[in-house]
Each structure stands twice: as C-alpha cells, then as structure tokens.
Amino acid sequence: MAVEKITEAGRARYWLGDMETDYIYTLGRAGEKFFRGLKEGKIVATRCRKCNLTYLPPRIYCEHCFSELDEWVELLDEGYIEAFTVLTVDADGNKLDPPEVIAFIAFDGVTGGLIHRIGEASPDEVYPGMMVKAVWKPPEERVGSINDIKYWKPAIE
Amino acid sequence: MKISKYPGTPLKEADIREKRVLTTFWRPKARYAWSAGVAITRFLEELKNGRLIGRKCSKCGRILVPPRMYCELCFKPTDEWVYVRDAGRVATYSISYLSADAKRLKEPIIVAVIDLDDTPPNVGILHKIGEVSKEDLPAWMRGEKFGVRVKAVWKPPEERVGSINDIKYWKPIEV
Ligand SMILES: [Zn+2]
Ligand SMILES: [Zn+2]
C-alpha cells in the first residue's frame, strides 16, 4: 500500500502567504532623547556622577548604584573600533555585494558604545582599535534614527 | 518600594500615530508556501480539467472528496482515485453578510456544505451557492433549503487555474 509521491517539483501545488507580523518599538525616555539628539547631529549620553560613568546608549538608571540619571552630556562623534565583522548576506539572507563591515564603536571614557556600519574602507583595511568618525546625513534628511548617521569612516590619527 | 513609585511613561496609540514619540517600525519578511500535499495537488489539477476527483477506501467503501491519502476511520491508506459527479445536495448552509476577509457585504453570500451524490453523507465539500434570485432568498433565510439539489457552475477552461474557485459556485436545480 505505497502512498503516491510527487516526483516532479513543478506538479506540487502550494499557497503563498505573507505573515504581517509588524511591530512598532517605542524607545523609552532615554532612547527618545538619544534619537532626537541624532536628528540634531549630536550623540548624547547620560552620566552617573556618583560612579563616574558615562552611559551610551544613554540609560535612565545607573546599573551600578541604581540612581536615576538626569545629567546629559554630548559626546564627540569620534570613536574607535572595538570589534567588527564582515557581512556577506543581509538580514533576509540576500547576498551583499560588496560586503558590509559592521563594528562595535567605543568611545574614550564611555561605558557601552554603538553598533554601526563602517564606510570608506574595505574589509581588509579595518582593524580593532581603528579610529573612526561619523558621517552624517544632511540635516533635512535626518528623522531621529540610528541611520541619521550614514556610516563611520576612518579618522586621521 | 511599591510598583506605583515607578509609574513608567504611558503612551497612547495617538502618540505613536501622530509621531509625538519616535518609533522603530519593522516588518519581518515572514513569507511561507503551504504545500497542498499529494491528494490536494491531484484534486486541484483535476479541478483545472473541470472534474472532481476523490479517493476511495476499500475497507469502509467511502469516497473522500476532497481526497485524502489516509482513511481516518479505518487507519489505513486509501486505495484508488475515482471521479465523482459535480452534483449533490445542500447539507447545511449559512447566509453571510461578511466576505472571506471580513468586509461588509450589501448582498449576502450563501456558504454551504454540499453532500455530493457519489460520496456518503458527512463527507461534503464547502463552497458557495449562486444564482439565488431575490424572490428565493427569503426561503433560504428561513432555513427552508436544506437538502436542495445543486450543480457546480464552472469557470470556462481558459480561466481555470487549479483552484477551488475554478468552480464559480453551485446553483440550485429543479428536480
Ligand atoms: Zn551610579
Ligand atoms: Zn475507510
């Protein structure tokens, strides 16, 4: 009693569907201020005076002493690559040509950092510790998103 | 400390809609292809040919339409393909003022389970009833149409694609 099998792929029928599983993520108090800062071309962080720590992305509470943070500081848009990876496929699995470099960018005297794209440098030119500088979109194109920074380019040391 | 000491930041839908707060929007590409399987693939191919096909179980003798490769009563694979006639009776029906995607309809649609002449009761297929005149609709509304005889109305061959909608609807016929 063998069950029939479809051996020609073209004969198999199927229904295509699209699951619209949208989500809208709100940024919270600190995130709101951080992204509004990006729109103005600024990178802002919060400071805990007690622990002498500067948080990026900014947080509302200090992770060490639990005090509420209301001191805001503006950082220079220059940092260094702490770690990086080379992407050959995008988030949906499509091939990226040329490949893209994604880095964790750290800042002197700052706890945390930003994950962002590296531009104007090929993957084999990038190294940990490399100094980088933000390349911003023009003000009229900025919307309050991490992509208001186009990418980070090598900075002259 | 009480949770009420940490009130959070309440947001209304309008705050998001009217962009009073910044948001990140994301739509994952969650595409899928749902396979019809062996039995339904053949069923759909035959619909394109303008025919209804079922599977017969030799143990209980039932013809299953839409076909299944397994008899759920006998716990065994079904045995053969059989063509069945595109005529039957209305086993049960419902009058709907909502379309399949929940839009309001001015003119109602009649959705019915049809017991085919060649299949035993309680096998029936789900489809639409058409060509019901305005004069006849009240009788349908009163629930007087159970058991009424119906026949499939097919799309012309060049419009058929191998879908259950290759049958436009089933129309009531005089006995
Ligand atoms: Zn602290
Ligand atoms: Zn059986």
Description:
The complex is a heterodimer of chains A (157) and B (175). With 157 residues, chain A is mostly beta strands. Chain A has one helix at 28-39; strands at residues 14-19, 23-26, 43-48, 53-56, 71-75, 78-89, 95-106, 111-112, 114-118, 131-136, 149-154. Chain A has one domain: Nucleic acid-binding proteins (OB fold (Dihydrolipoamide Acetyltransferase, E2P), Beta Barrel). Chain A contains 1 helix and 11 strands; from the N terminus they run E-E-H-E-E-E-E-E-E-E-E-E. A 5-stranded antiparallel beta sheet of chain A has the order 9-7-6-10-11, with no helix packed on it. In chain A, a hairpin with a 5-residue loop joins strand 6 and strand 7. Chain A is extended, with a radius of gyration of 22 Å. The mean pLDDT of chain A is 91. With 175 residues, chain B is mostly beta strands. Chain B has one domain: OB fold (Dihydrolipoamide Acetyltransferase, E2P) (Beta Barrel). In chain B, the strands form 3 sheets. Chain B has a 5-stranded antiparallel beta sheet with strand order 10-9-8-11-12, with no helix packed on it. In chain B, strands 4-3-7 form a 3-stranded antiparallel beta sheet, with helices on one face. In chain B, strand 9 (104-116) and strand 10 (125-129) form a beta hairpin. The chains are: A mainly beta (157), B mainly beta (175). The complex binds zinc ion (2 copies). Residues 57, 59-60, 62, 71, 73-74 of chain B line the site of one zinc ion.
